Amino acid sequence: MMKQVLSVLLLQACAVAALAADNPLSVHVLNTQNGLPGPDIQVTLERQQDDQWIMLESGRTNAQGRITALYPSDKKLVEGIYRVTFKTGAWLKQQETPTFFPEIPVVFQIDGALDHYHIPLLLSPYGYSTYRGN
Asked: Which pLDDT tens digit goes with each residue over 48-97?
Protein backbone atom coordinates (compact mmCIF):
# COMPACT_ATOMS: atom_id res chain seq x y z
CA MET A 1 0.00 0.00 0.00
CA MET A 2 2.80 2.43 0.89
CA LYS A 3 4.53 1.76 -2.45
CA GLN A 4 1.29 2.57 -4.28
CA VAL A 5 0.91 5.86 -2.41
CA LEU A 6 4.52 6.80 -3.16
CA SER A 7 4.04 5.92 -6.83
CA VAL A 8 0.96 8.14 -7.06
CA LEU A 9 2.79 11.03 -5.36
CA LEU A 10 5.73 10.65 -7.72
CA LEU A 11 3.43 10.67 -10.75
CA GLN A 12 1.69 13.80 -9.46
CA ALA A 13 5.04 15.54 -8.93
CA CYS A 14 6.11 14.63 -12.47
CA ALA A 15 2.85 15.96 -13.89
CA VAL A 16 3.27 19.26 -12.02
CA ALA A 17 6.87 19.52 -13.24
CA ALA A 18 5.80 18.86 -16.84
CA LEU A 19 3.13 21.56 -16.68
CA ALA A 20 5.56 24.03 -15.14
CA ALA A 21 8.16 23.29 -17.82
CA ASP A 22 5.75 24.52 -20.50
CA ASN A 23 5.24 27.90 -18.80
CA PRO A 24 8.02 30.20 -17.58
CA LEU A 25 6.36 31.25 -14.30
CA SER A 26 4.79 29.37 -11.41
CA VAL A 27 3.84 30.26 -7.83
CA HIS A 28 3.20 28.28 -4.66
CA VAL A 29 1.64 29.31 -1.33
CA LEU A 30 2.25 27.45 1.92
CA ASN A 31 0.60 28.36 5.20
CA THR A 32 3.38 28.17 7.79
CA GLN A 33 0.88 28.40 10.64
CA ASN A 34 -0.41 24.90 9.95
CA GLY A 35 2.02 23.55 7.34
CA LEU A 36 -0.68 23.19 4.68
CA PRO A 37 -0.95 24.60 1.16
CA GLY A 38 -2.92 27.76 0.45
CA PRO A 39 -5.66 26.78 -2.04
CA ASP A 40 -7.97 29.22 -3.85
CA ILE A 41 -5.84 32.34 -3.35
CA GLN A 42 -6.20 34.97 -6.08
CA VAL A 43 -2.85 35.87 -7.68
CA THR A 44 -2.12 38.56 -10.27
CA LEU A 45 0.88 39.06 -12.54
CA GLU A 46 1.94 42.48 -13.81
CA ARG A 47 4.92 43.77 -15.80
CA GLN A 48 6.47 47.18 -15.23
CA GLN A 49 6.46 49.34 -18.33
CA ASP A 50 7.95 52.79 -17.86
CA ASP A 51 6.40 53.91 -14.54
CA GLN A 52 3.23 51.83 -14.82
CA TRP A 53 2.19 48.28 -14.03
CA ILE A 54 0.52 46.43 -16.92
CA MET A 55 -1.74 43.49 -16.01
CA LEU A 56 -0.70 40.28 -17.76
CA GLU A 57 -2.52 37.41 -16.08
CA SER A 58 -4.38 36.27 -12.97
CA GLY A 59 -5.43 32.99 -11.47
CA ARG A 60 -6.23 31.07 -8.31
CA THR A 61 -4.02 28.58 -6.55
CA ASN A 62 -5.07 24.94 -6.86
CA ALA A 63 -5.63 22.44 -4.03
CA GLN A 64 -1.83 22.15 -3.59
CA GLY A 65 -1.50 25.94 -3.32
CA ARG A 66 0.07 26.20 -6.79
CA ILE A 67 -0.43 27.97 -10.07
CA THR A 68 1.82 26.05 -12.43
CA ALA A 69 1.33 28.37 -15.42
CA LEU A 70 0.93 32.04 -14.46
CA TYR A 71 2.67 33.64 -17.45
CA PRO A 72 0.32 34.26 -20.41
CA SER A 73 0.59 31.25 -22.73
CA ASP A 74 0.24 33.40 -25.84
CA LYS A 75 3.18 35.69 -24.97
CA LYS A 76 6.93 35.22 -25.24
CA LEU A 77 8.89 35.63 -21.99
CA VAL A 78 10.29 39.16 -21.89
CA GLU A 79 13.08 40.37 -19.63
CA GLY A 80 11.99 43.04 -17.17
CA ILE A 81 10.55 43.87 -13.76
CA TYR A 82 7.44 41.95 -12.73
CA ARG A 83 5.07 41.93 -9.77
CA VAL A 84 3.11 38.95 -8.48
CA THR A 85 0.45 39.96 -5.95
CA PHE A 86 -1.01 37.34 -3.65
CA LYS A 87 -4.50 38.44 -2.45
CA THR A 88 -4.18 36.76 0.93
CA GLY A 89 -6.68 38.83 2.96
CA ALA A 90 -9.86 37.28 1.56
CA TRP A 91 -8.43 33.78 1.88
CA LEU A 92 -7.36 34.25 5.50
CA LYS A 93 -10.74 35.80 6.31
CA GLN A 94 -12.40 32.61 4.99
CA GLN A 95 -10.13 30.70 7.38
CA GLU A 96 -11.38 32.99 10.19
CA THR A 97 -7.78 34.11 10.66
CA PRO A 98 -6.94 37.78 11.16
CA THR A 99 -4.02 39.15 9.17
CA PHE A 100 -1.83 42.21 8.97
CA PHE A 101 -1.18 41.70 5.24
CA PRO A 102 -4.36 41.72 3.10
CA GLU A 103 -2.21 41.32 0.00
CA ILE A 104 1.43 40.56 -0.61
CA PRO A 105 3.18 42.03 -3.65
CA VAL A 106 6.43 40.38 -4.72
CA VAL A 107 8.49 42.40 -7.19
CA PHE A 108 11.18 40.49 -9.09
CA GLN A 109 13.32 40.68 -12.19
CA ILE A 110 13.33 38.27 -15.10
CA ASP A 111 16.78 38.49 -16.62
CA GLY A 112 16.50 35.68 -19.16
CA ALA A 113 19.09 33.53 -17.36
CA LEU A 114 16.48 30.83 -16.61
CA ASP A 115 13.76 29.14 -18.65
CA HIS A 116 11.47 28.95 -15.62
CA TYR A 117 10.94 31.20 -12.59
CA HIS A 118 9.15 30.02 -9.45
CA ILE A 119 7.89 32.34 -6.69
CA PRO A 120 7.03 30.49 -3.45
CA LEU A 121 5.27 32.35 -0.65
CA LEU A 122 5.49 31.14 2.95
CA LEU A 123 2.56 32.76 4.74
CA SER A 124 1.35 33.28 8.29
CA PRO A 125 -1.17 35.83 9.64
CA TYR A 126 1.48 38.35 10.68
CA GLY A 127 4.43 37.57 8.45
CA TYR A 128 5.61 36.10 5.19
CA SER A 129 8.75 35.23 3.27
CA THR A 130 9.52 34.48 -0.34
CA TYR A 131 12.48 33.47 -2.44
CA ARG A 132 13.43 32.48 -5.99
CA GLY A 133 12.50 28.83 -6.16
CA ASN A 134 13.09 26.29 -8.88
From this structure: 999 999 999 999 999 999 999 999 998 889 999 999 999 999 999 998 99
**pTM score:** 0.82
- 120 CB-near residues (< 8 Å, 6+ apart): 27, 28, 29, 30, 130, 131, 133
Mean pLDDT taken over the chain = 88
Residues 6+ apart with CB under 8 A from 127: 100
d(CA 134, CA 120): 9
Strands 66-67 and 25-31: antiparallel
Given a cut of 50, whether residue 19 has pLDDT beyond it is no
For residue 80, is it left (φ>0), alpha (ψ between -120 and 50) or beta?
left
Q: Name the amino acid, one letter, at 30.
A: L
